[in-house]
Structure formats: structure tokens, C-alpha cells
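In this section we walk through a basic example: taking a raw amino acid sequence and producing a predicted 3D structure, encoded as C-alpha cells. The instruction is simple. Fold the sequence below.
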Amino acid sequence: MSKQAGRVTTVLLVLAAAAFLVFAWWVGNMTHSARLAAAEFMDNLAAEKTAGLSGSLVELAENLQEFGMPLYSVGKVRLTWDLKARAEIILEQGGRKAGFALSLERRGNRWQPKDAPPSQVSVTAGQNQPLLALTVGDAALTKPLEPMGHDKLLTLLEEDKRAEWLHLGWQDLAEYFTVFFQGKEVAPVVGMDALNLYGREGRVAAAVLTQEYVPDVIRVNINTTGFGGIHHAQVEIACSGRWQVVEAVTGRSLDLEPGSVTLRAQGDFLLMGTETFQHRLIFTPLEAQGKLRLPSVIRAQGVPSYPGTIEVANMGGNLVIVNEVPLEEYLCYVLPGEMPESFGPQALAVQAVVARTYALGNLYASQWRATSAHVVDSVLSQVYNNSGTTAAARAAVESTRGQYLARDGKPALVRYFSTSSGYTASYHEVWGEGTGGNEAFPGTPKPWLMSKAQFPGGEEYSEENYADFIHNPPPGCYDEASPWFRWHFTVPADQLQEIIADNLKSVFVVNEKTVERQNADGKFETVEEIPDDPVGQLLELIPARRGEGGVLMWVDIVGSNGTWRVKREYYIRHVLRPQGSAQRPITLVRHDGSTLNNYSLLPSAHVIWETQGDEALEKVTFYGGGFGHGVGMSQYGVRELARQGWSLEEILAHYFPGTQLTALD
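The resulting C-alpha cell sequence is shown next.
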């Protein structure tokens, strides 16, 4: 190698070394500044300075604040080829460390945090008690929650994240509130009374069941006289023996002499005579077989007496009553309101199993948890204590004690009704899926609640022959002894169009998604309001869609002012109800020849109609079969099958195929 070449090589090596040193200095400087930026970001989160953050960084900030800022440090920092950086953030809680990668990017001449892995705060079961858990990507930290004592859940407001407890009263719930039993999550149910509570900064974050929840007690909201609603202006409670009242939270108690007391709301308080209470009151008879009466509530039996305890709470200035009663005792007071004693012991036993199954499903769903109950005492659940109880009802409940129908290890969804047309209806063709504006109709099929023939031979439903089926039902239909097996009525067209116009509006108010109007393109779409005269002159009624068994799912109403479509069995029954006036009564004739004027609802949606009129519609005659929604078990059908000697198991398998007869532990 020449001296000149050697000098060139030396120069190049020096330049390369210098470049490397410059690059190393630059990398070190960039890494150091990225580390400082990451540390500053974490310092700001610790000081709750979160202005200007977005996306995953906001989520991280909120979750770190919710968890409580752990110790933190910045670990390794790496630059990426696209001049971005990833800083390892090391979190430490209770001696345990976990790390996640914070992404940074250059903005101008400064590093700024860009994003972080997904993060959340939750609770986990833990070995001895629930733990508050923070996860950031794959990193996870936990710390103990604060014990809040042993309690009973009375009321649950899930949307408001609040709950009422027997001893703690009203408390806020953490967003991640969870109930555990033996390390597994379980759904909270009002009435659970073996709960250890754990909190975070004054909110209840977790509850642990100390023993398995057994649904052997049910909580019932009591309606006013006439079943006008569950909010009472005042409540009178009476007892013929010694009794006691205890105030929740404070535990303050008063022993009461035989007689009655009257309760009223005053602001947020309860008044009982000269006594003032801040929390709900719980009334209990002190003598064996003692019962409480509600003179302020009138039922078919007169003044009802209630087993169990009665609670009265002030909810928004109205009084709400809860009767907490053993499940089996509750059923003794349900059966007389749901099935006549004359149907016989076997039919009553079947009804007891189905009523118990229905009650258990409602109990776990706790639809009335916002008013401290599982069910109400009206047809919105099952009619309870309208006419007291009977020896026959008690015998039916006792003979089936604890038995219910299960599906997939849980109480099966069951439905029952009075009378079938000769076919039951499929659940998904009567009810939708979801609630409110998100409801989808038809719903999801339930294999054990599908349409089924209710006569020997069980011919499949035929839409082409449906009119003949209604006019000439096959022999041996299980429901033919019911007065509602067949019925008919005639309505003048001008009166029917008035009925439809009025009822379209009322149905729309309840569920606007069930009423649609045909547009200029011939398509049906929902509307924002119903005009004053939606129908005009009634021109035609069209059974636009039927489900299996013939139940109406859609009916189209064609008028001079437009064409309307009403969806779902109940709303169709409401829109076409034969409710005339005193001056123009509509007479409904039943299967047994009996008549009823101005009936408040179309008896069932298993219905056809025939029209009269040459140039214009003059009158419409409706012919139908059955009474009720038509899904599940027909009570008149049960009576006949029991009369024919079918066993309890055979009858239940007929109406609810694919369910299992099970007993409560």
C-alpha cells in the first residue's frame, strides 16, 4: 500500500470514528431526552395533570388515578428506525413490579408521549379477599381493597352505579363492582344476605358471598288498589298480634301492640305517627303464624294478609312496599290467581312447577331490582295474593316442592296462558330480542318454546288452510272446553277505523318501533309521530305476516290517508281490540255462547277476518281462537291432558320439550 493510500485510509477511519461518536452522542442525547419526557409524563400523571392527552393516554391516566398511583420508574429506552421511541415504564405495588412500553414521538424538538397499551382497572377474587387489579398491556398489579362489613343487598341501580344495603344504606358502586362466590363471578341479586363487602375510596368495589346463594326467598313489590302501580301515597299496615318494626342502617326498633300504623313520606323521610325515620322500615310479626295486613290496599279478597315481612321505603317521595316471603309460600298465594281449583290436583301441580320456574327466572333476572324486588304482584309477573290461598293450592305446591324446569343448568324461560287456538305460538314470533329502540323482531328462537299442535295427531300448521282451521277446528283439541276456544265479533267499518286510529297512537307512545308507515316507494319505515287522522277511511286489513301456528306478527291497515303496519302480537291485539262505547257496543260471542261487550283486548292474535261491502267497506267480522299470547303452556290444555291421565312429567315435556325437571338443592 502506498503512503498516500495509507493516509486516505487513516482519514476515512478517523472520519468514521468521528461519525460514530457523533451518532452515539446523538443517540445518547435523544435517548436521554426521551427518558426525561417519559419521566415527566409519569410525573404529570402522578400530579393528575392530564390536559392535552387523548386516546389510550387518557385511559391510562384515568386507570392509574383509579387504582392509586403506584411507584414508577423509567427503564430501558429504545429508538426505532422511524425516529420514534419506546420507553419501558416500571410500576411497583406492594413489592411487585410490572412494566409496559410507552410510545413517544418527536414534535418539533421535543419528545411527546404518543400512546400506551390498553389498560383497565377491575377486581379479582384473590385468595383471601378481593383485590383491586390494574392491567396495562401484559403488566398487572394488584392491591387489597378495604373491608366494609357484612351486609344484605336491598336495591340495585345499575345505570346510576348505586346500591342500597341493609346496614350501610345507600352507597356508590365502583364501575367494576363484582360479586364473587368461591373465586368465580356471580350476578348480584337483590336479597342476597351473606355478603362481605370491600371498597375503594368510599365506593363498594366487590362483594363476596360467604355461602352459596339459594333462591328460597322472593321479594315482591305490592301494587296499589286496582293494580295501579307500585308507588303509594300512604301505607297502612296492621297486625292482630304483637309485631315489631326495625329501621334499616340504624337498627332502631319499636315493639308494636296489636293494631295498625300509617306511614307517609315527608321529603326524604318516613313518618309513622309521631316518629320520623330516615331509612326503610321492616315490619315483622312476633307471634307464630302471624301475618301482616295492608288495609290501604284492596284486593278481590278484601284486605290482603301477607306472610313474611313487609318493608316500606321512601323512593322519590312515594312509598314502595316489598313483601319478602319464602318462595314456596309465595307460590301458595300465586296459584289461586293463575288457575282455578276446579282444574284438579294434577293440573294445579303442573301449574305449581311452571309458576316456580317462572318465579325463579324472574328472581335471578331481578327486573324490579331498582325498587328492591324480584317481581311485582300483578300480571307483569304473576298475580300474587289477589284472592288469598287455598288448601288445594298448598297441596299442589307441597307435592312439587322445589321442582322446576331447567335448561342449560338454569331455570328455563317459560310462558303460560289461558287457551290455545289448537296451536301454540313460537316465542320468537311473539316477542323481540333486546329492549326499547334496540329491540329486534322477530327474536331468537327458543327450541323449547316453538309452535306445536294441541290436538291428537298433531298436523303441521298450514297457512293456506288456516281460515278453515279457525272455522272448523279438528276434533279432540285439548282446549275445546274453554269458552275462549273460539270467538267472533262484528264491527262497522267506520267504528273500526276510529278504534284503529285511537289505538295506533297509544301503541306508538308505548313502543314507537312497532308502528310503521308505507312510503312512496312502497317500503315501510318508522315515523316520528302519528297524525291526528292516520287512517282516514278504512279500505282494507291485510294479515301481512303470520308465524307458525297462525299467530299474527304483522298486520297492514290500508286507509285513504295511508297504509300502516303494526308489528307484534300484543300491539296488534291492542290496535284491533273490540272496545266500543256505551252508545255503540261491540259484542264478542264466545265458544260457549256467552257474550261480552266492549272487551278491552283482542282475545288472541290467532285471528282471521271477513269483510262485507260492495263498493266500500261496510263491516268486518273477526273470527279467532284462544286467549292470551299463545306461547308455552295452555292452562285449559293442561286441564284436559290431566283429565286424560297424562303424568306431570308428560304434560311438562309436551309443553316445554327439551327442558329437565329439576329440584332446588
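Looking at the output, two observations stand out. The mean pLDDT is 93. The radius of gyration is 34 Å. In the next section we compare this with other chains.
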